[in-house]
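To the structural biology subgroup,

Please find below the input and predicted structure for dTDP-4-dehydrorhamnose 3,5-epimerase, which we are adding to the shared reference set this quarter. The sequence is reproduced verbatim from the submission form. If anyone notices a discrepancy with their own records, reply to this email rather than editing the shared folder directly, so we keep one authoritative version.
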Amino acid sequence: MKRIDTLLPGVFLLEPVVHGDHRGYFMESYTRSKLEGLGLTYDFIQDNQSLSAQAGVIRGLHYQLSGKAQTKLVRVLTGAVYDVAVDIRKGSPTFGKWIGVVLSEDNKRQIVVPKGFAHGICTLVPNTQLLYKVDEYYSPEHDRGILWNDPELGIDWPASAPILSAKDQGQPRLKDAEIDFAYREGQ
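Predicted structure (tokenized):
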């Protein structure tokens, strides 16, 4: 597995080794020891899966407060997404900055979104399935979000008529969001 650094420290892409032939392919999508060898030492405790039936579905920007914050390891099983991570660590040199990457069943890339980052996706094709590992259980009391189209973030979502949940339509802007993450040097 190959680790690819991004412009946001702590957010990484992972590219698996894919063994393909005329029958299809085989790959290891998760091997704890290999991730540890890449410096990623998360204790994932839960898998989540979602299906979006249409292209243009936006889910996010989501995070949990620091007491129950989650690191996510996200991959696409079928279809494709534009995956976004936003730095929400107060005092960070990249606070409010974001990156967007395409994850797909074809490129088989994964993204590591650590604690202190909001996360969102936009489906690029119908019937897209996501699988993501988390290192903390879901906690409704700690569940928070940021408005997907906050003009101060300026995320360039690839959807002309996005499909959103009522919850995601009503999230606050970054400047009004409840955030309890603080940046620490070397983090």
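Summary notes: The helical segments are 32-37, 166-169. The radius of gyration is 16 Å.

Regards,
Lab coordination
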